[in-house]
Amino acid sequence: MGTTLTNQNSIPEEIKIRLRSGNAYYHSVQNLLSSRLIFKNLKIKIYRTLILPVVLHGCETWSLTLREERKLRVFENMVLRRIFGTRTDEVTGEWRRLHNKELYDLYSSPNIVRVIKSRRMIWAWHVALMGEESGVYRVLVGKQEGKRPLGRPRSRWVDNIKMDLQEVGCGYMDCIGLAQDRDRWRRFVSAVMNLRVP
Fold first, then answer.
1. Which of 75, 81, 83 lies closest to 32, judged by CA?
2. DSSP secondary structure string, 100-150?
3. Cα–Cα distance between 71 and 75 in angstroms, integer?
4. How far apart are CA 185 and CA 67, in angstroms?
5. Between 86 and which of 12, 95, 131, 140 could a Cys-Cys bridge form, CB atoms 3.0 to 4.6 Å apart?
């Protein structure tokens, strides 16, 4: 369950490895997930306790792009379609796959992207409490020295935290200073977790 680090801090390779491991766990329990003898609540617990932790190992430090978020949601939709099965179409009467919106309505828990964002917010709170002298703080929040290469700058971890705060209407505040207030920060973590992603 190690984490893959590159000299460019490239997350796509890490996501690929995590999804490959998640697929291996998914295939080992797919007969349970499609069984009609097991309640759907139990299948969801199997997903949340056996598959999801493997995929999300080390996700607190990920700086995700929309492409990576989409890959993670595609994986989760694949598992949820196995859990909830197919549905009869009201017009044609034929069996069809569930649409993404139907999956999110059936799956009452926060989706995989929301879980990552809330864990990242919790980790941000721990990093803020460590102080500016800690190595973790300098790695995750610090700015790169020297001349920046041409092109759009890469999204940093702290940029993702600021975007998460903007989603809950708090983008103008300093995230590190805000994290000093534990109760307020917990409310923001809860708000990020409960936002719906289309």
1. 83
2. HHHHHHH--S--HHHHHHHHHHHHHHHHHHH-TTSHHHHHHHPPPPSPPPS
3. 6
4. 28
5. 95
CB 46 within 8 A of CB 32: yes
Token pair for 81: 């379609």
Tokens of 76: 């989760």
* Cα distance between residue 38 and residue 176, in whole Å: 45
With b for 16 or more beta-carbon neighbours within 10 A and e for fewer, the 20-53 pattern comes to: eebbebbeebeebbeeeeeeeeebbebbeeebbe
What letter does residue 151 receive in the DSSP assignment?
A: S
Name the helix (H) or strand (E) containing 17: helix 11-34
The pLDDT of residue 197 = 47
Task: Profile the chain (198 residues) by mean pLDDT over runs of 10 residues.
Answer: 60 90 93 91 93 91 88 94 83 80 86 88 78 69 66 72 74 62 75 61
Cβ atoms of 111 and 105 within 8 Å: the answer is: no
Q: Map residue 9 onto helix, strand or coil.
A: coil
Dist. CA 176–CA 88, nearest whole Å: 50
